[in-house]
Amino acid sequence: MSEAELSGSDIYLQKEVVFQKGQRYLLKANSGHGKSSVLNFIYGSNFNYTGEVSYSIEETSIFNLRKTEISYVFQDFKLFPSLTLFENIQLKNKLTHYKSTEQIDALIEKMQLTHRRDSLVGTLSLGQRQRAAVIRALCQPFSFLLLDEPFSHLDNSNIKIIVEILNKELEERQAAVIITALDNLPFFEFDKTINL
């Protein structure tokens, strides 16, 4: 993007942008304007920028930060199609031991996915995969939850279910969330909207 296109951005070309724990941020822009890039910068999976991303947590390894402080639901989900829905979730949980099998099954039930629990991810709809990716992201400790257009394949009833689960998890953990979207998300309350 050109400097003229970036001049109105709340992030790009700014001297400093701070995301605080416990806050809820909406990162809003049209397609192709860098929403995913910002999340990838924070997550440490893209270093194609000028400037610095720093964390207030005393941790030198980005890999450890990803295990204990930052959880991410990618736009393309990053699920393994040859594993079942439950196996995909368990992959993360075996690393963290954050949730019990009963807690995971309760989340699967709340997300109305019990009938697909043991189905291969490759056979699931996009909406089902999206919900599975959200459950997996909750199976680790975090101070920041990054959600890249997490409702793009869901109807309003499923969005309400996810929002209710997210609100509970965020409150219990006193965690921040950064959600990207093309437009406003009226069903989620944000502390700050950031325009790219």
Assigned CATH architecture: 3-Layer(aba) Sandwich
Structural class by secondary-structure content:
alpha/beta
Order of helices and strands: HEHHEHHHEHEE
CATH class: Alpha Beta
Strand segment tally: 5
Looking across the biggest beta sheet, what order are the strands in? Answer: 2-3-4-1-5
Shape: globular
* CATH-defined fold name: Rossmann fold
Termini Cα gap: 11 Å
Indicate the proportion of strand residues.
Answer: 5-15%
* Rounded radius of gyration (Å): 17 Å
Largest sheet: 5 strands, parallel
- What would CATH call the homologous superfamily? P-loop containing nucleotide triphosphate hydrolases
Count helical runs.
7
Q: In which range does the helix fraction lie?
A: 25-40%
Number of domains: 1
Structure report:
The chain has 196 residues and is α/β, with parallel strands linked by helices. It has a single domain, classed as 3-Layer(aba) Sandwich (Rossmann fold). It is built from seven helices and five strands, in the order H-E-H-H-E-H-H-H-E-H-E-E. A five-stranded parallel beta sheet has the order 2-3-4-1-5. Strand 3, helix 7 (156-173) and strand 4 (176-181) form a beta-alpha-beta unit. Helix 4 runs parallel beside helix 6. It is globular, with a radius of gyration of 17 Å. The mean pLDDT is 93.
